[in-house]
Structure formats: C-alpha cells, structure tokens
Specification:
This protein is of the alpha/beta class and about 190 residues long. The chain is about 40% helix and about 20% strand. It binds flavin mononucleotide.
Length: about 190
C-alpha cells in the first residue's frame, strides 16, 4: 500500500441482523488490497447508526448542528472514491444508504463511485440503477463496471465467507481498474 494512493471507502449499506453485506465487503476489501491502487477503508452504516436526517439546513451549506453529521462529513470528506456495497430490497437500494447520502452534499462531489450489488434474482442490478440517478445529483461520477451477485446468501461458505469464485474476483478487479482510472482523472 502506498500512502499517497487515493482513499477508497467500501460502504456497507445493509444494517439488518443476519445481513450478508459485510461478507461481500470483506471479500472486496481483500481484492482491493491485492489490487494495490488505493488506500482501502471500510465504512459500515450499521456501526455509524445515523438517525433519519435531522439537520435543519440544506447540507450544501455545510452548517451542521449535530456531532453525528460532523463525524459523517469528516469521514466522507477524506475519501477520494467509493464502492457502495448495496443489497436490493424491493427493486431498489436500501433506505439506510439513501439517508446516509442525503446527510451530506459537497463531501460527495467530484468523486468516483462503483457498485457491488447483490440480492436474489435481481443481483443488485435495479438497486445500482437507482443509485446512479441519485449520485449524479451530488456530482459524483458513477462508473459503468460493477460487481453483481445473484442469490448472494448461497455464495457464502458455512463460515460465512464469500466462496472462492474467479469470475467474481475478475469483475472486482475490472471495476477497481476503472475506479482508479476515473479517480486519477478527477484528482
Ligand atoms: C425487504 C427485502 C426485500 C428484498 N427485495 C429483493 C428484490 O427486490 N430483488 C432481489 O433480487 N432480492 C431481494 N431481496 C433479497 C435480498 O437482496 C437478499 O436477502 C440479501 O441478502 C439482502 O442483503 P443483506 O442480507 O445484506 O441485508 C429482498 C430482501 C429483503 C429483506
């Protein structure tokens, strides 16, 4: 890892007890560390435990009243790029992620974002499509290359880890390459 590399935050969107999101995030972190292009951080929205948006002023003003918002702002600010690890719920992404996005504004801007979507038959595809529409409002740059995992729970070993899958690894590396290319352009 090179300290001057851009910071990539892997954001775990699911907060449900028994969620599979962290397993896919842990797998992705390993691939990203092996890739070597980023300083990799994990951000778990379950640990962050933000309330529903409770700031009186529009986030673009950056006049935050609550410590949880200031902390969230500082976290997102230090990232150069993101991978949203998103489940698909009812043909969309989850409300916790939308809330976390809505809390901030400038902190997201001019940064590339890739998606690791997973679910049942939908493989996270519809969640990702919805996210692309939302993130462009914040001047984020969504990349085309994505990791999609259908029937995600079935891809885990009895220990709860993502079972070895060269195709999944290859998809992750392609996404990381593109994320790095776009991040360098944006910097
Ligand atoms: C409320 C809810 C809605 C779901 N809707 C969909 C869906 O529309 N499409 C799909 O492919 N899977 C759907 N699923 C399956 C989830 O994507 C799958 O259970 C996944 O493991 C959820 O992620 P998590 O375990 O990290 O929370 C749904 C699951 C839940 C709990």
């Amino acid at each position: 890892m090179n300290e001057s590399n851009p910071v990539l935050q892997i954001v775990i969107a699911s907060t449900r007890p028994g969620r599979v999101g962290p397993a896919f995030a842990e797998w992705f972190v390993k691939v990203a560390e092996g890739h070597g292009g980023f300083v990799v951080e994990t951000v778990d929205l379950a640990e962050r435990n933000l309330p529903f948006l409770d700031e009186p002023k529009h986030p673009k003003l950056r006049e935050y009243q609550h410590q949880h918002t200031k902390d969230w702002s500082a976290t997102v600010d230090r990232a150069d790029a993101f991978v949203f690890v998103t489940p698909e719920y009812n043909y969309g992404y989850n409300a916790v992620l939308k809330n976390a996005i809505d809390f901030l504004h400038q902190e997201w801007a001019d940064k590339a974002v890739g998606f690791l979507g997973y679910g049942g038959v939908g493989a996270g595809t519809r969640a990702i499509q919805q996210l692309k529409q939302v993130v462009t409002t914040l001047r984020m740059v969504p990349i085309f290359e994505a990791v999609n995992v259908p029937f995600a729970a079935g891809k885990l070993t009895p220990d709860g880890e993502v079972a070895a899958d060269p195709q999944l690894d290859a998809a992750a590396v392609v996404m990381l390459d593109e994320l790095l290319r776009v991040t360098k352009l944006l910097r």
